[in-house]
Every structure is written in C-alpha cells, then in structure tokens.
Amino acid sequence: MKKVMYGMIAVILTVGLLGCATSGPKGGPSPKVTVVAPMVKLSKKATVTIKGTDFKPGQEVEILFTAVDGVQSDIGYALKPKPVADSTGTWVTTWKCGRFVSKKLIKVGSYTLTVTDADYNELARATVAFEK
Questions:
Q1: Number of structural domains in the chain
Q2: Does residue 55 contact residue 31 with C-beta atoms inside 8 Å?
Q3: What is the Cα–Cα distance from 8 to 23, expressed in whole angstroms?
Q4: Residues 14, 53 within the same domain
Q5: Domain span at residue 127?
Q6: Rounded to whole angstroms, how far apart are CA atoms 62 and 19?
Q7: To 5 degrees, how large is the angle CA 117–CA 95–CA 49?
Q8: CA distances (Å), 103 to each of 6, 43, 64, 88, 99, in order?
Q9: What does the alpha-carbon distance between residue 82 and residue 72 come to, in Å, rounded to a whole number?
C-alpha cells in the first residue's frame, strides 16, 4: 500500500513539474525582447528601440527600467507607441530616455529592461548599454 501511495505521489509531482515547465502561452515559445541597437550613445536626445516577439496577440506589456541606484521605474509614459502585441505576437516601441540621462539615472554602463504583463509579472528581459 505504501509503495502505491509513494508511486502516486511521484507521478503527481512529475506531472506538476512538467505542467509548470511549459515555456510560453499554450505551451508555445517564451516571449522574447530585444534592444534593436544594444549600444546607445549617452545624450539628452537618446532613444532606444525595443522589440518583442512570441507574445500573446493583443497582449499589452509594461517595460521597467532598473536605474543606477537599483530602483525599477515603469517607463510606459516615455514609449511611443504603447507596446501591444499584434496578431503575430510582435510589438515594437521606442523609448525616449533623454530624461533619465539628464537626471543622471543613466550613466555609462549596462542596464536591464524587464518586460511584464499588465499585473507586472515578468515575461522577458533585455540588456541595453550606454556609452559616451
């Protein structure tokens, strides 16, 4: 009886782990985000083009920037257009980041952009680097 019970527990745990391991929506690919030009000139007029693929069609996303001090900021107000996945799960937006440069939240170095759903659950990450 104990062997049967342990066997059932092992099966349940295995099925649970496999169910959690599906990568994307409906078992599809995981969403990806890329910075089109990963090296950006540090200036007050700097812009960053960000592209996402393999998102759910119609899905609205938020993008968070992690500043020098480690604080994450929602940069949605500075994105044109608002990132929303088209019928193929793709979106493209441009971030006007000059305000972050002028406030010295961006300095020379690498930073993480975190793409989330509307509830701020992380979906993907990308790196952007700023140079003089």
A1: 2
A2: yes
A3: 25
A4: no
A5: 31-131
A6: 26
A7: 90
A8: 59, 11, 17, 37, 6
A9: 19
Name which of 38, 102, 41, 97 is nearest 73 in CA terms: 97
Instruction: DSSP letter for 98, please.
Output: H
> Per-residue confidence of the chain (132 residues) as pLDDT tens digits?
444 333 433 333 333 333 333 344 456 789 999 998 879 999 999 999 999 999 999 999 999 999 878 889 999 999 999 999 999 999 999 999 988 888 888 999 999 999 999 999 999 999 999 999
Do 18 and 45 lie in one domain? The reply is no
Q: Are 50 and 97 in contact (CB under 8 A)?
A: no
pTM of the model: 0.76
Mark residue 2 as left, alpha or beta (left: phi above 0; alpha: psi -120 to 50; beta: remaining): alpha
> Is residue 20 domain-shared with residue 36, that is, in the same domain?
no
Query: Tokens representing 58?
Result: 């119609």
CA 115 – CA 74 distance, rounded (Å): 10
Q: Please tell me whether residues 103 and 64 are part of one structural domain.
A: yes
**Are 2 and 62 part of one and the same domain?**
no
